[in-house]
Amino acid sequence: MTDSMPLDLLKRLVPFNTLSESHLQDIQRKGRLVLLDRGKVLFKRGAEDPDVHYLLQGSVDLTDASFDITPVEGGSERCLRALDDHNPHSVTAVSTSPVRLLVVPKDHVDLVLTWHQAGNYMVTDLAAGGDFDNDWMSSLLASAMFAAVPPANIQQLFAKFESTPVDAGQAVINQGDPGDYFYVVKSGRCKVTRKVLRQGETKEVLLAELGPGDMFGEDALIGDAPRNATVSMITHGSLMRLGKPDFQALLQDPVLDYVAYADLLAMLEDPKEKVIILDVRLPAEYKEGNVPGSRNLPLQVLRENLSRLDPDTLYVVTCDGGRRSVLAAYILNQEGMIAHVLKDPPNAG
Predict the structure, then answer these.
(1) Residue 229 and residue 206: Cα distance in Å, rounded?
(2) CA atoms of 114 and 274, how far apart (whole Å)
(3) How far is CA 201 from CA 196, 208, 349, in A?
(4) How far apart are CA 331 and CA 77, in angstroms?
(5) Cis peptide upstream of residue 298 (ω within 30 degrees of 0)
(6) How many of the other CB atoms lie within 10 Å of CB of 267?
(7) Quick one: CATH architecture of 7-104?
């Protein structure tokens, strides 16, 4: 993809014009802009097609089973809808001039629309039935981490959350403690700090401030490791928390996909696939042995390097014991990227 579809243009297309900004950005990441010359076949009648096509510029002829031709011009009202969203196609599309197309995977469109519609329903339904608040639920549903969670899990997921009041100055989680809950800020503000050793002295470093809709506490649950920071309240407020077993069953496991090494090799040989293997171990570990062709990006610096990663690339993450790669894949997916865990890495030790 040479460039991305501007959001203001994407907002005009049906059914994307019904989506929130976060869901539009998701479509923007998954879509690709395609340029074709005159006389090219976009798709054929009767053919299966995993994509949906929108004509942005140029002209196309659509030919049906009776050989009736419908010309379509870029910029017309007809172009606000997909050229043909039937599967298999009911028409053949041929460019009658150089054209510019937006092509989006059909399955992803269906996923986003399901999330948008189911999310709106569930927020309203759940908020009306108990101690819930639209804002924190809407924030969760709009987050990239929820895109891979089956909608059927959501009703059960929200039912498992419990509200807990917190006072100003109260420590919610402490650095070094075992992980037990995943948290979402419902109201109030909190700060994230970490104790570090510098020049022989232990100092407390402020990492972030969090407000309503922000999440924390998942790293220790996914990596099954001690808390890596302390979160304490700046103001009085309320948190929604989800226990570790429910988090893993309803939120973590559905988000993570695994790939076997043999399948990875096939993906790497496919010129249509854009795949990068990320080894998230320390540089010294990586030098001792690694998956051929992999790149080293240690877990502890992954978050600060997210802006350097390509959202249109599939990342396959590996380590040695598996915990770090699981956490890294979760972080990448949470940021709206596509990441799988390599389940049987060779020469990774």
Answers:
(1) 10
(2) 27
(3) 8, 22, 34
(4) 40
(5) no
(6) 16
(7) Sandwich (2.60)
CATH ID of 130-253, from 3.30.420.110, 3.40.50.1820, 1.10.287.3510, 2.60.120.10: 2.60.120.10
Q: For every one of its 349 residues, what pLDDT tens digit does the chain have, with 9 covering 90 and above?
A: 346 788 888 999 988 887 777 678 878 888 999 999 999 999 999 999 999 999 999 999 999 999 999 999 999 999 999 999 887 899 999 999 999 999 999 877 876 665 555 444 344 444 444 444 556 777 777 676 666 666 666 777 888 899 999 999 999 999 989 889 999 999 999 999 988 877 778 888 899 999 988 889 887 787 677 888 899 999 999 999 999 998 888 877 776 788 999 999 999 998 888 999 999 888 878 887 889 999 999 887 888 899 899 988 999 999 876 778 887 888 888 787 889 999 888 754 4
Here the tokens at position 229 are 């920071």
Q: Is 66 exposed, middle or buried (0-12, 13-18, 19+ CB in 10 A)?
A: exposed
DSSP class per residue in 337-349: -EEEEESS-SS--
| Exposure letters 241-260 (e unless 16+ CB within 10 A, then b) | bbebebbeebbbeebbeebe
Burial of 167 from C-beta contacts in 10 A (0-12 / 13-18 / 19+): exposed
How far apart, in Å, are the Cα atoms of 143 and each of 25, 166, 339? Answer: 11, 24, 16
Which residues make up the CATH 3.40.250.10 domain(s) of the chain?
Answer: 256-342
pTM: 0.50
Question: Maximum distance among all alpha carbons in the chain?
Answer: 82
Q: What is the CATH number of domain 256-342?
A: 3.40.250.10
Q: Rounded distance, CA 43 to CA 41, Å?
A: 6
Please tell me what DSSP assigns to residue 300: G
Distinct helix (H) and strand (E) counts, the chain: 11, 20
